[in-house]
Amino acid sequence: MLKMKKVLLFDLDQTILNRNESLLKFLNWQVSYLNLVPHELKKSFINRFIELDNNGSVWKDIVYSQLIKDFNIKKYDTSELLQSYINDFNKFSTAFENAPKTIQNLHAQGYTLGLVSNGKTPFQEKNFYALELTDYFSIIVISEAIGLRKPDPEIYLYTCNQLDCKPSDCIFIGDNPKADIEGAKKIGMKTIYFHPTLTLHPSLSDASIHHYDELEETVRRLINPPHF
């Protein structure tokens, strides 16, 4: 009898990478380093960026173009600020607490690990590389690089094909109920919904966690459910 593969697929933003914290660190640096606005407007600028960014769903040329208008910025144009974002964001990449240690443990326990992220290339790769976890991952899939986006079933099937596994071999860990949980679940993967301030988990997910300290036990429970 063939032994089932143990494959764990992770989203990046707000799953491994604490994007909210990373973004705040980057914006504090960028506003000060480039002297974009007077000190008394710094907080307003950052808050407006976060509002326009809409949890990363709006690309930054649109965000910076609006910010330049809102704050009457003359020293820099959209392309210059966008280039700073692309080049410098990764310097502030911050993982969630205990994510690196947990990922190392799971790898040491024999799990095959993969990353599947919606986003731009090579921007997302650089953010991930900065976390120094690439040695533990067998595959990195970025949507723009392959022309597919979650929750399209094809991006999950592409990843399975590259790893020579079946969807039923996989557990997908992510923070987006639609892209990560619903998309993976539809093709037969088990799912873990991750959210640090979680109250209720999506009805489709098999499990939910608030913190990486919970992940190893949750994975074990999904692979070997208790029998009563």
Automatic annotation (TrEMBL):
The keyword Hydrolase applies. Gene3D superfamilies: 1.10.150.520, HAD superfamily/HAD-like. Its cofactor is Mg(2+). The keyword Metal-binding applies. Keywords: Hydrolase, Magnesium, Metal-binding. One of its GO terms (biological process) is small molecule metabolic process. One of its GO terms (molecular function) is phosphatase activity. This is HAD hydrolase, family IA, variant 1.
